[in-house]
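Weekly puzzle thread! Below is a chain. First person to post its structure in token form gets bragging rights.
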Amino acid sequence: MPPSYIFITYILDLGQVLDSNNLRHIRLHDLRHSCGTLLIQNGVPVKDIQIWLGHSSYNTTANIYTHVDTESKQNSALVIGNSLNFTDPSQDDDEEDEEMEL
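Winning reply:
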């Protein structure tokens, strides 16, 4: 399939979809990055994402798509805390609020 076909078929349609939904214009590559990021955030193994995106190297996929977001950092901290038998400070506040209401 020639690149011009891809441009005409997908890029122009993408522009129309974005326009009709009042969304800002993005590059097709941005959608690829969003796909990789969403797959990572939903627990898909990096090796599977590498194959899906066609990267020749596992490291390429891992370096680009495994940036850690705030929610992941919080989840990691909770896992460590739970394994060390620490309590979640936000749960302590909820318990105090319940005691005050009684």
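Puzzle host: Confirmed. Bonus trivia for everyone else. The CA atoms of residues 57 and 63 lie 10 Å apart.
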